[in-house]
Design goal:
Length: about 140
């Protein structure tokens, strides 16, 4: 990274979310599972949003899901999004159930269809952080 513009795409990494980002760097998508009610959730939280139990473990998701909805973004003045325009903002529903906000990569908007199968991919955004993105299943 050679420029010093403030970046709008970096996550705030907290204790509860650090394992998620460490796993992403290692090419794994983690979701949280509640040991009390066995439901999974995402994004990472220190308690279960279904039953409020704090008995949460991180489990590796399959990385497969379906495209729930998406939007092609043509305008965003914030660095570094401005340099990536147009890009595809999407919500993906994981095979395990949770939905997550992400970007679709390696595809054109015309290639996309709601409900299509997608799979996780990881893109370095800094030396330490990989973003979780998705691409169509080939
Ligand atoms: Zn629970």
């Amino acid at each position: 990274m050679s420029d010093n513009k403030p970046r709008a795409d970096l996550p705030t990494i907290e204790d509860a979310s650090k394992p998620y980002w460490d796993a992403a760097k290692a090419g794994k998508l983690l979701i949280a599972k509640c040991l009390a009610c066995e439901k999974v959730h995402h994004y990472p939280r220190p308690f279960c949003p279904s039953c409020w139990s704090e008995e949460i473990v991180q489990v590796e998701a399959s990385g497969r899901g379906t495209l729930y909805t998406y939007s092609t973004v043509y305008m965003n003045d914030l660095h570094p999004f401005k340099e990536r325009l147009p890009y595809i903002a999407a919500m993906v529903e994981l095979e395990e159930g949770p939905r997550l906000m992400t970007n679709m990569v390696d595809c054109e908007p015309a290639d996309l269809e709601v409900g299509m199968p997608v799979q996780v991919a990881f893109r370095p955004i800094t030396d330490e952080i990989d973003a979780t993105v998705f691409q169509p299943v080939p």
